[in-house]
Amino acid sequence: MKLLIKTTDTDGRLSMVPEYLEIPWDIEVVDPDDYPAFERALRGAIAMISMSWRGRMPPAPDLRLLQLPGAGTDEIDFSMLDARVAVCNCYEHEIGIAEYVLGAMLEWTVGVRRMDARFRSGDWSGSHLCGPRHGELFGKTLGIVGYGRIGREVARRAQAFGMQVRACSRTSSNRDALIGCIASMEGLYELLAQSDFVLVAAPLTDATRGLFGPQAFRTMKSSSVVINVARGAIIQQQALFDALVQERIGGAIIDVWYDYPPSHQISGRPAALPFHELPNILMTPHASGWTEGLLPRRNRAIADNLNRLARGESLVNVVRPAVSAA
């Protein structure tokens, strides 16, 4: 059986897939920008690993599985993909992201970096001897927008710190064993008004694009901190910048952005607006889930689905099931 991988995905992120395959696959690498070669490669391919399927795509008469090596489906045009092809995604990033969120909230609240910088110059401010006291996560309210795998992993850790956790989601049931009641998205503004930290963990869809605008930031507490580990476009760029400049909210912890450098480049500003000049934001380069454990877990999960497909078993993490030909 033939497995297709794009050249753009051969940067080492999928290198461990073969060692987890129980049934040998004929793995072919193809440049998607070379349309004739891509068209030839798709003939006979049973599965393909890719985060993207959009625009002018060659026919894929034998394809049965489009396996995403990540979670997001915003680069998949399902209307361009034959209904007989199952689409599955892959997670395993929720552990690293949850640890990032807790670490960032702790840093925001305790301020270890700030204390370290002052103390290196001999300043004892913030000690039990003098100066302001730092905060605690204990007793604070965390509001989670989008209660999927990331939201649940964060909630579990936040509760261990004594935080109160609330969530709203368009897909979850009204009850959850971990945090109790989950509101629908109609309860978003009530959640924003109650929360000391607001975690954006929803997928980017037509419904969530630009979800956080001026009204959302006016609804939040003036001391609240918004955390975005989902997609930059869920928060309107100008609205976030204005809320920070005008101190309508306490601050922001942002890991996902509006502008990304071209592939294999590592320099460039992440937005059109100068967020880097603001003192009330923590900025990281989409790194929250990029941990040592991520790739082994993801490679194993991808290989598991390929093994299942080869054995004729049910697939896991199905985003869109295949429709059998009549």
Describe the structure.
- The chain is an alpha/beta fold.
- It folds into 2 domains: 2-92 and 293-320, 3-Layer(aba) Sandwich (Rossmann fold); 94-283, Rossmann fold (3-Layer(aba) Sandwich).
- It is 27% helix and 16% strand.
- The strands form 3 sheets. It has a 6-stranded mixed β-sheet, sandwiched between helices. A 6-stranded parallel β-sheet has the order 7-6-10-11-12-13, with helices on both faces.
- Helix 3 (94-110) packs across helix 5 (149-160).
- The longest helix is centred in the last third of the chain and has 18 residues, at 294-311.
- The two termini are 23 Å apart.
Strand and helix order: EHEHEEEHHEHEEEHEHEHEEHE
| Spatial extent as radius of gyration | 22 Å
**Strand elements, count:** 14
Assembly state here? single chain
Total tally of structural domains: 2
Unreliable runs? none
Number of helices: 9
Widest sheet: strand ordering: 2-1-3-4-5-14
Residue share in helix: 25-40%
CATH topology (fold) name of the largest domain: Rossmann fold
CATH level-four homologous superfamily name of the largest domain = NAD(P)-binding Rossmann-like Domain
What is the 3D form? elongated
The assigned structural class equals alpha/beta
Describe the sheet with the most strands: 6 strands, mixed
Q: Report the mean per-residue pLDDT as an integer.
A: 94
CATH architecture of the largest domain: 3-Layer(aba) Sandwich
By CATH reckoning, the class of the largest domain would read Alpha Beta
State the separation between the terminal residues, measured CA to CA: 23 Å
Q: What proportion of the residues form beta strands (DSSP E)? A: 15-25%
